[in-house]
Amino acid sequence: MKGKRAFLFVFLIGLLVAGAFAGAKAYGDVPVRRVLTLEQAQQWAQAWVHRKQNAIPAWQGAEVGEPMVYFDLDGVPAVYAFPVRKGTEDVGHIIISYEAVENPVLAFGPGVAPHLRCPECVSEAKLAQRGLRLASKAMIYIDPLDYFYEVEPVDPAVRAENASANKRLLIPMGMETIITATHTPAAKQVVDIPAETIPDFGTISVASAATAVKIFGVPDYNQFKGSDYGYDYDCYSGCAPTSAANVMHFWDDAGFDGLAYDNWRDTTYYLRQYMETGCDEYGGGPTRSSKISPGMENYAKSRGFNFTSEQYCWPEEPEPGVHWEGCIGEAVWSLYTGQIDLHNPLVIALLNDYYRNHAVTGVGYDNDGGQYWIVHDNWPNTPEDIWVLSTSSDMEHFFYYTFIPPVHDSTPPTARITASSLHKLGSGIPVMWKGQDDMTGVIVYDVQYGYSPATSGTGASAQAISWTDWLTFTTAITGSFSASQTGTYYFRARAYDRAGNVSEWTSPVQTLVYSYDFTGNVLGNRGHWIPGAEISAGEQAVGTAYSGYNGSFTLRFSGAVTTSLSVTRTGYGALPPAKGVKVTGDRSGWLFVLPPADDLMTNGGFESGLYGWTASGPAGFAALADTGHTGDHAAYLHSDGSSTGELVQAVSAVVPADEPALSLVYAVSGTTSSSAWLWAIVEGSSDSAANSARLDSQGWHHLWVD
User: Which of 290, 328, 520, 628 has the fewest CB atoms within 10 Å, measured from its CB?
Assistant: First the structure.
C-alpha cells in the first residue's frame, strides 16, 4: 500500500495561525511557564557576545545594550531583542528567548536589532492615507527573521468586524504590504514564573573563529514586487526562488559562467517559472515544497548545466505512514554541514514557530554553543549573515534542498605576496597579495604576520616564525599593516577558491622597520654626481646605502646612535670615515666628496696636520667631531683684519691643460658674513685659474677650480 504524501507551501507572507501556549498547570488551570528575568537574559546575551567575538570580530570589546521585548499575537512576551554596541555604534543583535529553555539564544548576528533597522518603514502619515493606524508600538515576533508592527483600521466599525473574525493586520519590517493573520486568542492567560537558576557564565570562554564555517561569495538578494520592475506578476518574488537565485549567482561566479542571468531579478523570475511559484491573495509568492529541487535542476538545464538537486526532510515522516512529497531522505545535521564543507550552498525551507513557512539560503554553520545555521535571509533590511538555532524544541519541520555541480573543483589555488623591504616607523607597511585559480576562482584570503626585533640578517624560516592572524577571509588584495616598533616583520598569505580549496601558505616576505633617515650626497671633485657609491655605518645601521643616479643616498637607523660613516666607490680615491656622527632623529644634508683615483695632493685631508703644506697668516689645523665631514682633522683659515690665512702646496706633475682641478670642502665656524670670501687658486708655469665662495651660510660646501 502506498504511503500518504504531504507537502508544504513555502511563503514569503501569508496566513499566520498561532495556537495557545500549553504549559504546566498551576494557579488552578492557568498555564504557567518558566521565564528569564531581564537580568538573566542580559547575562546570557553578554556571555554570547564574549563567546562569539572571534566569529564576529566587531564584537570584540562590545557590550549588550538595553533590550526591547517583542510579543506574540496574544500579547505574551516572546523574546528579548538585545542590541550589541561598541561605544555608540551598533555592531549586532542577539535574540534571547523569554521562556527559560536549555539554550535560549535563538538568533544573533552582526546586523542591528530588528526594531532599529528601519525606523522610517512604518509611517503613521502613510498609514492614515490608507485608513490605518498603529495598534501598538510594540513589535510582534513570529520567528528570528520575521518581525512586524501591528496596525488596525481607523474606522471603529471595521475594527469591530476584524475582531469578530480574529483578523489581525501586520506590516513586515521594510515593506508596505499588509499581512492578514487569522489568530484565535488563547483561552487562558499565561502566568510567568522566573527561572530559579541559570548557567555559571564565569566559565564561558571565547570560542575559536574556526567554529563558524562559512561559504564566501554567496549573494544576499532580497525579495521584490514583480510589477515594480516590469515583470508580469503583481506580488513578491517569493522566498524560495530568491534564495535559489543566491545559489545560482554563486555558481555563476565560481566557473559556471552563464548559469545566472546578468540581472539577478531575471534569474529569480525564471526560477519562479520552473518552481511554479504563484501569487497568493496577500501578495506573497508561495512555492510548493516538492517543486523547489526540480525547479532548480530544470532551471540549470535551461542554461546548459547539469546540476543535481535533492530534497531532504525532517522528520522524514511527519506522521506514521505519511511521507513528504519529493523527499529522498532525512535532513540530518551531518548532511547540511557536509554540503557546506564542500562549499555547496543550499536552500533551507522551514516550518516551525520560529521560521514559519519560509525559505532562506544556507551559507554556513557554527557548532559552538549549539547547532546553528548561518543563513542569508531575503527580507528587506535584514543583515547578511544570521546565526539561527536549528535545534529549537519548537521546531516542527524543515527541508534541505541541495544543489551539486556536475564537476567538482579539487585543485587548490596558488597565492603570492609582496611587501616593501624597508619601511619607516610611523606609517602603515604596504602589503599586496594575489591568488590564481583557473576553475572556480579565488574568493578570499588569509594573511598572517610575524615579528622579530632583529633589524639585520637574512630573516627566519617560516617554521621559526611565530605567526599571528592579521586578516582572515578577506576579499582585499592590499593592506596597510600598522607596525608598533622597529624590527623585522614577516608576512605570508593563502588563498581560498569558491570550491573551498585552500592554497599553501606563501613563502614569507619581510620588511625591516626603522626609525630615522640619514640622507646626503656623494660628489666627485668637479661637483659631479657619483652613483653607486656604498655608504655604510656597520651593524648600527639598517643595511647599507648606495647613492642613486644624482648622488643622493639614504641610510636608515632603528634608533639613536653615535656611529662612524664610510663611503667607497670603485674608480675613486679613499676617504677616511666620518667619526662620532650622532643620529638622534632624521638628519639630512651630509656631503661626501670623493677624491679622484689619481689624486696628486699630499695630505689633502690634513690627517697628518699641515705636513706637505706651507701656512702663512692665521692658519692651522683642528680636530673634528660630528662636524659633517670625514677624518679626524681639518685645516682652518681666517682673517684677523690685518692679515689673511693661506695654505699653499706645490705639486710637481705634468697635467694636461684641460684637466687640472683643485677641489676642497669647507665650512664656516662661527658667524657667517656676506663680505667674507674663500679663494681657491691653481697657478701653473704659464697660466692660472681661480674660484671663490662667499662665506654666508653654515654647513659644509664644495668648491673647485677647473
Answer: 328
- Return the domain boundaries, the chain: 4-401, 414-514
More confident residue, 691 or 462: 691
In eight-state DSSP terms, residue 600 is: -
Per the CB < 8 A criterion, the answer to whether 422 and 514 are in contact is yes
Range scoring the smallest mean pLDDT among 146-150, 185-189, 202-206:
202-206
CB 163 within 8 A of CB 185: no
Which contiguous run of DSSP H or E holds residue 264?
Answer: helix 264-275
All three cell numbers of 638: 681666517
Query: For the chain, how big is the Rg over CA atoms in Å?
Result: 40
Q: What is the DSSP annotation of 471-494?
A: EEEE--SEEEE---SSEEEEEEEE
Q: Are 543 and 456 in contact (CB under 8 A)?
A: yes
Q: What is the 3-state secondary structure (H, E, C) of 541-554?
A: CCCCEECCCCCEEE
Cα–Cα distance between 236 and 226 in angstroms, integer?
A: 6
Which residues fall within 8 angstroms of residue 520, CB to CB, at 6 or more apart?
535, 552, 553, 588, 589, 590, 591, 592
Cross-sheet strand order for the sheet of 545-546: 545-546, 534-536, 561-568, 578-583
> How close are the terminal C-alpha atoms of the chain, in Å?
116
Cα separation, 255 vs 440, whole angstroms: 4
| Residues whose CB is less than 8 angstroms from the CB of residue 686 and which lie 6 or more positions away in sequence, other chains included | none
Average pLDDT over residues 332-352: 91
Which pLDDT value is given to residue 40?
A: 93
How would you class 217 by CB atoms within 10 Å of its CB: exposed for 0-12, middle for 13-18, buried for 19 or more?
buried
